[in-house]
Structure formats: C-alpha cells, structure tokens
Write a structure and sequence with these properties.
Number of helices: 3
CATH topology: Aldehyde Oxidoreductase, domain 3
Shape: elongated
Oligomer: single chain
CATH class: Alpha Beta
C-alpha cells in the first residue's frame, strides 16, 4: 500500500489503519519507521515533490521482493510542505514472523533514501530552497534529492 498525502502525515491514524490491515492477515509482526522533520540548520521545515510514475514502479518492485519472503510493505509520504517535528515519511513491513520484518525494514528505508524519486527542499522564511549537496544521481535521470 502506497499513499501520498498533501502536507504532514497523521502518524497515529495511518499507523492504526496499517495495524488493522495486519491483524486481518494474521501477521505476527509490524515494524514501522516514522521520519520526522528535525530542527537543523535554521530551517522552518521541508517541502517535497514526487514523480509518481517512477515511485509507483519502485514500490511495485519492493512489493514483489517482499511477497517472495511472505511479507508486505506499507508506505506514506508527504507532498508539499511539512514543518518541524511533523512527519513526512512512514513505512512498515509486516510478516508472519518478526525476523523478516526486522531485516527488511532497514533495507527498504535505505533503498528509499537512495532511489525513490522524491525531491526535497528546505523551507526558510516562506521560501522553498533546493539544496543540491543533498542530491544524488537518479539512474537514467537527473539529480535526486
């Protein structure tokens, strides 16, 4: 399940929804990661743009990988502005046994940071500022931030 939201994420609501889905599957583990915008470098928050077609393909590949180990992935991400101490990214892996979820959540988050087509900007004094030093090359494309 991949969900995109305008603005910050309602962590409790999303996590409760995922928990209810996992209970129906009779999985024994749901490992969740919540990314929170931290106060650093004088920013007011972060802002995000997403290229949905590539993100959907990336996410489908992960669903396939996880299906092979009897696990499932859930992800939510913000589009637009997210202020300090709010959440912009959540993901979870569920599986019948905890070991698979524990191992896969780290791999998923690291691959997300490296390969998901999401561009991040600093918010300062009401302006969106692109920070190129955070970027990396997205395969067959331009800079990914």
């Amino acid at each position: 399940m991949l969900e995109l939201y305008k603005g910050n994420l309602d962590v409790k609501s999303i996590q409760n929804k995922w928990f209810d889905l996992v209970k129906e599957k009779n999985h024994g583990a749901l490992i969740t990661f919540v990314g929170i915008v931290r106060d650093e470098d004088g920013i007011d928050g972060l802002s995000f743009d997403i290229y949905e077609p590539i993100l959907n393909n990336w996410f489908l590949k992960w669903q396939g990988k996880l299906k092979m180990v009897k696990a499932e992935v859930y992800m939510a991400h913000s589009i637009g502005d997210v202020l300090l101490h709010e959440s912009s990214f959540m993901c979870a892996i569920s599986s019948p046994k905890r070991r698979v979820s524990l191992e896969m959540i780290d791999k998923f988050v690291e691959d997300f940071k490296a390969n998901a087509p999401i561009w991040k900007y600093d918010l300062r004094d009401g302006k969106r500022l692109f920070i190129k030093k955070r970027g990396q090359k997205l395969e067959n494309s331009g800079v990914l931030v």
